[in-house]
Amino acid sequence: MRLQTIGCVELNSVAVGIQVADAMIKAASVELVMAKTTCPGRYLIVIAGDTSAVTSSVESGCMIGSSMVVDRFIIPRVHHSVASALQGVPEANDMAALGVIEVYTCAGCILAADAAAKAANVQVLDIRFAAGLAGKAFVILSGDVSSVQAAVEAGVTGVGDSGPVLSHVVIPAPSQDLHKYIV
Fold first, then answer.
1. Same domain, 120 and 148
2. Which domain holds residue 98?
3. When you count CB atoms within 10 A of the terminal residue's CB, does the N or C end of the chain come out lower?
4. Same domain as 138, residue 158
């Protein structure tokens, strides 16, 4: 599947989240990319399709989810490395440097990853969602040091209202021992 526009709704209720996922799929011609529980008792839905269908689907989900909606977004022309990481197929490279952005919401994490990947020549290695992380999420980026620094800065800014950003770091020349646990 080649993702073009993605949309996301993150909710504070698993039951309402499942209801919203069903409504989003029925609201427009979209493909369900992800529908899963996250900590602490949240539900994350990511859909893909053309921009108008994704917009309609997300609006429908937010209307049905109402007060249970924690966060939401629509990203037209999502960066290919974000799409790969979401689908569990990260693009690997030499890892001259690592960047990590830790965010409070899963939706904010995806926004950070997309902004970072679009800002500099980096690869998104992993997008990790809130499982055992007390509701937090993080993205790991790799590339050369200056690219990772620029990407992390852009990613932090790209979170926008989906924040807060809890922390962010750039690690030049990460240990080879760490490498096997990152990829």
1. yes
2. 80-182
3. N
4. yes
